[in-house]
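for the writeup, i need someone to sanity check this before i put it in the appendix. the sequnce is what the collaborator sent (i think, or maybe the updated version? ugh). structure was predicted straight from it, no edits. if anything looks off just tell me and ill rerun, i have time this weekend
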Amino acid sequence: MIQITLIGRLTRDPEVKATQSGDTFTSFSLACSKGKDETMFFDCTVWGERGKPIEAWCKKGHQLMVQGMLGVNEYESPKTGEKRFSLKVMVNQFEFLTSKKEAEQIMNQKSGTVPEKDIQVAEKNEKSYPDQELPEVDIDSIKVQMPF
């Protein structure tokens, strides 16, 4: 597998799900710009308790940096029956790139509370990224051999 770092925006609200054996995971989709006219989409999964801050603090449109192992899912299109591929990332690290103020506004819209340790993580990440424009990621510089 290939280690990858991505900066992108969530295309949908994150969801916490559980397997039949009871293991929990958080899933979301990340859109990463590849220049002005092209966007790549990645299905992301964070296993266990580590994903709960993402579900609690993020929603569609928020910016997130993730690091993890890149993989490819192969599936058959239900409409055409042709073979398709999607990119997936098994996330092992992440950072919020949306400000604490925006995250607090989300909490006012969502029900439930966030554990104090998650608030501290968000505060730490806000200090890491002051209100400034982040550089664009040049995805073209990433050389990955894909099967399609």
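The radius of gyration is 16 Å. The longest strand covers residues 63-76.
thx in advance!!
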